[in-house]
Specification:
253 residues; alpha+beta; Pnp Oxidase, Chain A; six-stranded antiparallel β-barrel; 46% strand; six-stranded antiparallel beta barrel; Thrombin, subunit H; elongated
C-alpha cells in the first residue's frame, strides 16, 4: 500500500519526461508535496510554486515523481487527472501509472541550499606544468622550482560563488564569471558535519551553463564531480542527509 511508504507532507520532485519517457535532467525539478491519498494508485499533490507563482501541471500529461520519504527515495511515473482548490491552495489529483521504485543511488540525492563556496578553473597551463613535473627526470631543479612557484600562483586564484544545490555527484552554482561546458574546476567546500567544521576540495567538470534572466550578468553552472575520493563522497552524502533530517524536524516543529 502507498501508505506503507509515503507519508502526508513528503516532499516531491516533479520532472518533465522526454519523448522516450525518461526524466529530463537538464530542467530543474518542480517542488511539490504529498497532500492526501485517494485509493491504491491515486494521490493528491500541491501545485509547484515557481518564483512565487503557481505552476499548473498539464492534465493528461505524464511526469516523473520522486518522493523524499522517511524510508528513502522512491520514484514513479504519473499522469495528471484533474485540478481543484482547497483553501486557495491548488491541488492536483494524480494517478500513478507505474509502481513505486526505490532509488538506490544515494549520491544523486540533491539538497537544495544556498551556500558560499570558492572555486577555480583548472587551466591548460596548470595541466602542462603538472605534466612536466610528473616527468621530472627531464627537468632540472631550477626549472622544477619555477614550475612549482607558478603552480602555487595559480592555486591562489580562487573565486567566490554561491551553490544552489548539492549532491554526492555534483552541484549547481551561480557566478558572474563566464565559463564553458567542459571546463574543469576545483571547488572548496566548508561544511559542518556532526557539529564539526570540515573543509573539502573536490574536482569537477561543468556540464551545463545558462545565463540567468532574472539576475543580469549572472550565470548558472551545473557541475559533475570527477575523481572524487570515496571518503569525500561519503562525507558529502552524510552531510546532505543530516541537513535534510534537520529541515524535516524543523518543519514538523
Amino acid at each position: 500500500m502507498l501508505q506503507d511508504i509515503l507519508s502526508i507532507g513528503d516532499k516531491i520532485h516533479i520532472r518533465l519526461l522526454d519523448h522516450t519517457g525518461k526524466p529530463i535532467s537538464k530542467i530543474r525539478p518542480f517542488v511539490s508535496q504529498l497532500v492526501d491519498y485517494s485509493d491504491e494508485d491515486t494521490i493528491h499533490i500541491s501545485a509547484p510554486i515557481i518564483n512565487n507563482r503557481v505552476f499548473l501541471l498539464e492534465p493528461g500529461r505524464k511526469y516523473n515523481l520522486c518522493f523524499y520519504t522517511n524510508k528513502g527515495l522512491y520514484q514513479c511515473i504519473c499522469e495528471i487527472n484533474e485540478k481543484s482548490k482547497d483553501n486557495n491552495v491548488v491541488i492536483f489529483k494524480v494517478k500513478l501509472s507505474s509502481d513505486l521504485e526505490k532509488v538506490q543511488r544515494r549520491q544523486y540525492y540533491r539538497l537544495e541550499m544556498v551556500h558560499e563556496i570558492e572555486y577555480r578553473i583548472i587551466t591548460a597551463e596548470e595541466e602542462q606544468l603538472n605534466q612536466k613535473l610528473f616527468h621530472s627526470a627531464s627537468v632540472d631543479s631550477v626549472e622544477a622550482a619555477n614550475y612549482q612557484k607558478r603552480l602555487k600562483e595559480l592555486d591562489d586564484a580562487w573565486e567566490k560563488a554561491t551553490i544552489n544545490d548539492l549532491s554526492g555527484g555534483g552541484t549547481r552554482f551561480n557566478s558572474k564569471n563566464v565559463h564553458q561546458p567542459g571546463d574543469r574546476l576545483r571547488i572548496r567546500l566548508d561544511l559542518m558535519s556532526d557539529d564539526k567544521p570540515k573543509r573539502m576540495t573536490v574536482e569537477g567538470e561543468i556540464i551545463a551553463a545558462n545565463k540567468l534572466i532574472h539576475l543580469p550578468g549572472v550565470y548558472e553552472y551545473r557541475v559533475e564531480f570527477k575523481n572524487i575520493r570515496k571518503r569525500d563522497r561519503e562525507d558529502l552524502i552524510k552531510y546532505i542527509f543530516e541537513q535534510e533530517r534537520r529541515r524535516r524536524k524543523n518543519e514538523k516543529g
